[in-house]
Amino acid sequence: MARSKSSKRWLDEHVNDPYVKRAQQDGYRSRASYKLIELINKDNLLKSGMLVVDLGSAPGGWSQVVAPLVGDRGRVIASDILPMDSIADVEFIQGDFTEQSVFDQIMQTLGGSQADLVISDMAPNISGVDAADQAASMYLVELALDMAQQVLKPGGNFVAKVFHGEGYDDYVKAVRSHFDKVVIRKPEASRARSREVYLVAKGFRS
Question: Which residues are annotated as active site (predicted)?
Fold first, then answer.
């Protein structure tokens, strides 16, 4: 079957992408690791001993970055619908966290502890229909915010990938209403033509 122009363009970009090559050299599972590394450095998000919840974690690029930084005294609890190969010092829960059983499993794993940081790099399966894809992506980040509100400790932080489009402005407003400071970042590892940005929210207040 012949590839579409868009999928061929993506494949060419992917093969020639310096961050893809760098990820292979550095042993990261995803080029997205470099997006999180930049955010951590710019916004001082992580330190040893923190408890971090990683939503939409597969294939594990973000958990790979976080686990060594929180160290032996910290914890990383990761969750995704997709399977994820194990990572040292990361507790992985497979399933849809919008389902009660999976949510309960995450809460049980937290064991009454509250998270210092919730991170979400979730994105929907792309259908190619822009309006539907945007609605699906906004639904996911709304769920991530809801989860953050339930598990973050007062003063905790939240990072989420958001796509510009319908619902974006309202979402940013909603996040601002729960956090002291919200900034929008476009990491260097984000492709220039992508509508994705990363919302970094600090100082959670319920």
Answer: 161 (proton acceptor)
Question: Domain containing 84: what range?
Answer: 5-204
DSSP 19-54: HHHHHHHHT-S-TTHHHHHHHHHHHT---TT-EEEE
pLDDT of residue 18: 78
User: pLDDT averaged over consecutive 10-residue blocks of the chain (206 residues)?
Assistant: 57 66 79 94 97 97 97 97 96 94 96 97 86 92 96 98 95 98 94 90 94
Q: How far is CA 61 from the centre of its chain?
A: 10
Give the residue ranges of the annotated binding site. Answer: 60, 62, 80, 96, 121
Determine whether 42 is an active site residue. Answer: no
Which helix (H) or strand (E) element contains residue 131? Answer: helix 130-151
Q: Which two structure tokens, joined as six digits, stand for 205?
A: 């207040």
- Cα separation, 184 vs 153, whole angstroms: 22
Residue of 109, 116, 117, 121 lying closest to 55 (CA atoms): 121
Q: What pLDDT score was predicted for residue 13?
A: 58
How many domains are contained in the chain? 1
Rounding to the nearest 10 degrees, give the CA dihedral for residues 29, 58, 88, 52.
120
Binding residues for S-adenosyl-L-methionine: 60, 62, 80, 96, 121
